[in-house]
Design brief:
single chain; about 325 residues; alpha/beta; 5-stranded parallel beta sheet; 9 helices; about 25% strand; globular
């Protein structure tokens, strides 16, 4: 099987969960190799984690450019490694930055690009990806027909599964292009952590919409999220009203999520919101309007007042976990 490069997304020396999912998917279509860029002193720990999840080889490149500049140094490195390894495919996480890297790498390689894949498997003529398209109204299967397939995969496309491998290290000296210094990072601000999972990476998302009635109404949503270990999302109507931060918006003009469980509370289910969460594995809705469009989408629906339903559900989850 060919070598499948996985760009390992990491922060503060910790490998992000979507990178482990990519390594798991890579085993379906070839032999996984991890690409670790700009990890510094944390490189050994990241290498060990990548090897635990199936990386037979780990390419490590470290240079100030990865911290001081945006995107292009990663593109330079990934393109160089893909060419040298004659890779069978390149996988990245479908974040905003990841999709930009994927697009630039595909252009340089003269290859086809697939973004926002939600599944991946081996085909007779190369990797086959499943995508959710047209505001998640349809699912299609597709494959790259020219060059090295470059595929950006949504978080939660699969569960990470350990499969220990050698993790042989190959240090790479990257020849950076002139464009690598075109954009410089001038400052960084540490984001205040809520203690909850990152919205786009969370296995469970609990969201609130217009039906919560105001900013204070999100307290019952947050309480359920916390007992489930979930992230909190919000509809566009809720964030536009100032009830919840825009960074938590789920929808076509917000963040797209694909968790194992999505719980929509007081959300009507307009197409704008559905486009951001319709690929969730299991969808539950609580809404007091039995005609709400969201009920056409869900696996389980509760017609009722969310301020009565959610506290009961929160109490039941607590009781079952105690």
């Amino acid at each position: 099987m060919g070598e499948v490069l996985v760009l390992v997304d990491h922060a503060d020396g910790v490998v992000r969960k979507p990178a482990l999912e990519l390594l798991t998917l890579a085993r379906r279509i070839g032999e996984p190799s991890a690409v670790v860029l700009g990890a510094g002193a944390a490189a050994d720990g990241i290498r060990a984690k990548a090897a635990e999840y199936g990386a037979a080889k780990v390419y490590i490149a470290d240079a100030p450019e990865f911290a001081d500049q945006l995107v292009v140094p990663e593109v330079d490195a990934l393109t160089q490694i893909a060419r040298a390894a004659d890779a069978a495919a390149v996988l990245v996480t479908a974040t905003g930055e990841g999709k930009e890297i994927a697009a630039r790498v595909a252009l340089r390689l003269g290859s086809g690009l697939i973004t926002d894949a939600i599944d991946l498997y081996a085909g007779e003529r190369g990797p086959v990806a499943t995508q959710s398209v047209f505001a998640a109204s349809y699912q299609v299967t597709c494959r790259v027909t020219a060059g090295i397939p470059v595929i950006a995969v949504k978080p939660n496309a699969t569960g990470p599964e350990a499969a220990p491998a050698d993790g042989t290290v190959e240090n790479v000296a990257v020849a950076f292009s002139a464009a690598a210094t075109g954009t410089k990072v001038v400052s960084r601000v540490q984001r205040v952590s809520s203690g909850r999972p990152e919205l786009t990476e969370a296995a469970i998302v609990v969201s609130g919409g217009r039906g919560v009635g105001g900013a204070e109404g999100f307290s019952v949503v947050e309480q359920l999220a916390d007992v489930l270990g979930a992230a909190v999302g919000a509809s566009r109507a809720a964030v536009d009203a100032g009830w919840y931060p825009h960074g938590n918006q789920v929808g076509q003009t917000g963040k797209q999520v694909s968790p194992q469980l999505y719980v929509a509370n007081g959300i009507s289910g307009a197409i704008q919101h559905r486009a951001g969460m319709q690929t969730s594995k299991t969808i539950v809705a609580v809404n007091k309007d039995p005609e709400a469009p969201v009920f056409d989408l869900v696996d389980f629906g509760v017609v009722g007042d969310l301020f009565e339903v959610l506290p009961q559900l929160t109490a039941e989850v607590k009781a079952r976990r105690s």
